[in-house]
Amino acid sequence: MDSEALVAVIPSLRRYARALVGDRAMADDLVQDTLERAWRHAARWQADRSLRAWLFTIMHNVRVDQLRRSPPPGMLQPLDALDDHGAGPHARATQHDGLALRDLATALMALPEEQRAVLLLVGLEDMSYAEVAATLGTPIGTVMSRLSRGRDRLRQQLAASAPAPRLKVMK
């Protein structure tokens, strides 16, 4: 296994982990556990297979193991996932951008984890349906239905959280 290729995937793993679990410390633990497991089982990696997809599969399995050991707390944590992949210096964030990102983070964290995982792998990590299906160990049809349901739910939650426009009365 090429250590440089492994290091190159770490930012994607961190971004996905943060978006998935919603807490920076828990996400960092998830990435560390993923890399540790990958390093221990490096002999199992097949050179003809994508290292990135293999690492995301390991991360998924580590997360499933974590959830089996201790279910997530009832309170949803704020999402700080997109800070590694933010806009460059050419774009200025506005207060409205910050509020929109907060609303998106809240809506994402309210989704069931199966739907959130598929949405993040397709939308944030730009994986194909086949890659997501292989990563999560589910059929492509399941990926497509979770993605569709997740998008619908996300759209509904964002529409519900959008404030009504303030109209100014003109005389």
Sequence-ordered SSE layout with sheet pairings:
Elements: H1 3-21, H2 24-40, H3 51-69, H4 95-110, H5 113-124, H6 129-136, H7 140-161
Summarize the model shown.
With 171 residues, this protein is mainly α. It contains seven helices and no strands. Helix 6 crosses helix 7 (140-161).
Plain-language structure description:
By secondary structure, the protein is mainly α. 66% of the residues lie in helices and 0% in strands. The chain is elongated, with a radius of gyration of 18 Å. Residues 74-89 have low confidence and may be disordered.
Tell me the total number of β-strands.
0
N-to-C order of helices and strands: HHHHHHH
The biggest sheet, with number of strands, parallel, antiparallel or mixed sense and barrel status, is:
none
Which overall shape is indicated by the principal axes computed on the Cα atoms? elongated
Extract low-pLDDT stretches.
74-89
Helix coverage percent? 55-70%
N- and C-termini, Cα separation? 72 Å
Mean pLDDT: 80
Q: How many H/I helical runs? A: 7
Radius of gyration computed on alpha carbons: 18 Å
The percentage of residues in β strands lies in under 5%
